[in-house]
């Protein structure tokens, strides 16, 4: 067992005593490593230690080529045919017809039919953007006409029930007076 001098006796044989630790050497800065005492670090050390400039990292020619390729490929891509949108609009019109929208909400239903027909004509003329827009409008108007037709049908049912309730109330009043 090693012995370390203690503060009291100088010959202590304590098993938990630790040897003294030497402090770590201070870190040197780039300026201190330069041979001359100028304010700027040596150019070789500056390249080795400091972060390279963005020009070196990103290579502007390569970045320009990648962006140009992305723009060219994106511009050449064509839109898919609008048949799916037109089919969805047709299904919405059929759904509206099932709840008698052509009778109860005639204005919106006719507008949806006209827009669907215009979307089909735009598809035939290969104007895909216009065809998609018109098909979406037709679908929205068909949904609107279906919702208004359902609301009017429910209102008719409410009016019928209110009339039945009024008739029952009147019959109860006449029986109560007898």
Automatic annotation (TrEMBL):
Residues 85-160 form the DUF4398 domain. Residues 17-26 have a biased composition (Pro residues). Keywords: Coiled coil, Membrane, Transmembrane, Transmembrane helix. Residues 102-171 form a coiled coil. Residues 1-16 have a biased composition (Low complexity). InterPro entries: DUF4398. Residues 1-37 are annotated as: Disordered. It comes from the Bacteria. The keyword Transmembrane applies. The chain crosses the membrane at residues 62-80. Gene3D superfamilies: 1.20.1270.390. The keyword Coiled coil applies. This is DUF4398 domain-containing protein. It comes from Alkalisalibacterium limincola. The lineage of its organism: Bacteria, Pseudomonadati, Pseudomonadota, Gammaproteobacteria, Lysobacterales.
